[in-house]
Amino acid sequence: MPTRPIAGSADEIRGLVPEALAAYEFTRDHVLHGGLVDEDLKTLCFRFLAEETGSLDVSGLDERQRAALDWAHAIAWDSSLADDALWERLHALFSEPELVELGCAIGFELGQQHWRRSVGLTARD
């Protein structure tokens, strides 16, 4: 079994470069957890990204949640899915500032999950 390339928790690893830890903490507090979009909706998108196949049981989800997951799928795996129909749905359900925040959160989380895996951690805590 391969050893972990860098020892420690995600924050301990980020802490090797204090500016990286500070930038992550700011993003975590103001975009990933805080901000305009409900944290539960962001967490749903983050869980969706962490699934190996990008699959998640969507039964019982409302239209806003489904649209957010469709956008997460487009951002993570197939940008051609961000077509006019998806944008029409998104604009009907979210304000422009919410779309900016949610898109940034999804993109950042996707990168964090790849980074966590590359240093031998699970995709999400």
Helix-residue proportion: 55-70%
**Helical run tally:** 6
Radius of gyration: 16 Å
Oligomeric state of the chains?
Answer: single chain
Largest sheet, if any? none
- SSE sequence, one letter per element: HHHHHH
- Global outline: globular
Strand content: under 5%
Our measurement of the CA-to-CA distance between the termini, rounded to an integer number of angstroms, reads 22 Å
Structural class by secondary-structure content: mainly alpha
Average pLDDT for all residues:
92
Give the total of beta strands: 0
Poorly predicted parts: none
Total count of domains: 1
Report on the architecture of this protein.
The chain has one domain (15-118). The protein is 63% helix and 0% strand. It has 6 helices and no strands. Helix 3 packs parallel to helix 6. It is globular. The relative contact order is 0.17.
Structure characteristics:
single chain, 125 residues, mainly alpha
Brief write-up:
The protein has 125 residues and is mostly helical. It has helices at residues 10-14, 18-32, 39-50, 63-76, 84-93, 96-118. The protein has one domain (15-118).
List the helices and strands and how they pair.
Layout: H1 10-14, H2 18-32, H3 39-50, H4 63-76, H5 84-93, H6 96-118
Helix pairs in contact: 3-4, 3-6, 4-5, 4-6
